[in-house]
Amino acid sequence: MYMYKMEVELEKEGLVHLIIMAETDEQAFDYLEEHLVRHFIHNPEVREASIIEKKRAVKGSGYVIESK
């Protein structure tokens, strides 16, 4: 299992970051869509989505997300 740090540019909401656990890159993108639909009231339009980092999910794994 891997942890994915993903960056998503949405049409109206701007830039968002997600941390997702998945077995494959394809699965990570599928989960990304599911999380966006659950989080926002309406179904957001995705302009671009990319994987920023990918790490094995082991005890102690994590990411630092800076806000600028």
Automatic annotation (TrEMBL):
Which species is this record about?
Paenibacillus cremeus
Q: One Pfam annotation, family name?
A: DUF3906
**Looking at the record's lineage, which domain of life comes first?**
Bacteria
Q: What is this protein called?
A: DUF3906 family protein
